[in-house]
Amino acid sequence: MPAARAFSDVTLVNGSTGDPVLYLDYPGADNALLFDGGENAGLTAAQLGDLEAVFVSHHHVDHFIGLDRIIRANMDRDKVLHVFGPVNTIRKVYDRITAYEYPFFPFQKIVVRVTELLPGAARTAVLECTKKFPEPEVAEQPWAGPVCYENADLCVEAVPADHTVPCLAYALAEKTGFHPDPEKLGAGTLRPGRWVAEVLRLLRAGADAETRLEIDGGSFTLVALSDRYFAKSPGARVAYVTDTLWSDAARPGLTKLARGAWRLYCDSFYAAAEARQATKYKHMLAPQAGELARAARVDQLVLIHFATRYAGQYQQLVDEASAVFPRVTAEIP
Fold first, then answer.
1. Which of 155, 168, 188, 202 has the highest Cβ tally under 10 A?
2. How high is the pLDDT of residue 1?
3. Using CA atoms, how far apart are residues 175 and 173, in angstroms rounded to an integer?
4. Residue 194 has what pLDDT?
5. CA distance 205 to 303
6. Are 163 and 176 in contact (CB under 8 A)?
């Protein structure tokens, strides 16, 4: 049985046929995560403003064109927005941000912390609005992988993919322990807010069960809030794999990355008959997505990034993957 998951929203923004963009949100704080920076008009400015981190697979236009909208939604916020990607991500993010003119109002305090991941090293630069985005100073440190980002609730892992340009695949792994229960929060009388993070902090610190919190004019004990709105769980794993050849070089890392995932979102650009095209342009075949899901023993496989040549015939890709791994879905308009 798959582990319970704490995120309240998981959205494949453009379905299986558009730009691959995956949005995951947690209740009660500005801590949403975005995998890939492609077209994101399906997300509101408020959803984008809730972002804590963005994980870019590579810099092709269908994975990067949405960066401007992400920055705009966060420009007026006093926060740190983390951006991760492959080599040259710092320069590309900086060039995109500084392509625009800004009034630099005092309330515009966004800090964009950009990290590019290379074999054996991570390079980081901090882009600060209050300093008018000067030329970034890049710091490099050893990075053995796979964890590239971590907070109190989860970590994110990255491994190289095998594409025509530097490319990364990612996995989110929730930590074992207390998490907000999305179903309980949705059905409860209290609306999610900052109190969720405070309750989590107290639960993880082992605070007295009778500790009282004042929320929305009411007084609640920690144990009551825990029982009504939280759960202790080993956490879920979500893998995101796009734009890669199913090659000997990539296969071991991708399989390990996706191991035991509740859900694997996987590139399935071509049908089996297009093996030559898949090799040339370095994409996966639909049955190869099934092979990865089977080898990694995931619970669900969601096919993404269908080539437009299959418009009206997308079911062919689903059928080919299902012949290898039975628990397959796709979001087809």
1. 168
2. 40
3. 6
4. 81
5. 40
6. no
| Run of H or E including 274 | none
Enumerate the β-bridge partners of residue 265.
Answer: 240, 302
Assign residue 48 the CATH number of its domain: 3.60.15.10
The residue assigned the tokens 């009551």 is 224
* Total residues belonging to the chain: 333
Structural domain of 182: 177-228
Same domain, 264 and 320: yes
- Which residues, listed in sequence order, are joined to residue 230 by a DSSP beta bridge? 180
Residues of the chain with pLDDT under 70: 1-8, 28-29
Please name the amino acid found at residue 169. Answer: A
- With 0-12 / 13-18 / 19 or more C-beta atoms within 10 angstroms meaning exposed / middle / buried, residue 103 is exposed
What's the rounded Cα separation, in Å, for the pair 275 and 309?
15
State the helix-helix crossing angle for 194-204 and 222-229, rounded to 10 degrees.
110
- For residue 185, the model assigns a pLDDT of 82
Residue 110 CA: distances (Å) to CA of 34, 49, 131, 194: 17, 11, 10, 20
Are 103 and 165 in a shared domain? yes
> What pTM value is reported for the model?
0.89
| CA angle at 40 for the pair 102 and 116, rounded to the nearest 5° | 70
Contact call for residues 185 and 176 (beta carbons, < 8 A):
no
Pick from 183, 211, 172: nearest CA to 195? 211
Specify whether 268 is located in the same domain as 187.
no
pLDDT of residue 2: 47
Q: Is the dihedral of CA 328, 43, 173, 209 positive or negative?
A: negative
Measure the N-to-C terminal CA separation of the chain; round to a whole number of Å.
Answer: 30
Structure tokens at 233: 């769980």
232: helix, coil or strand? strand
129, 102 in Cβ contact below 8 A?
yes
Q: Is residue 3 part of a domain?
A: no
- As for how many domains the chain has, the answer is 2
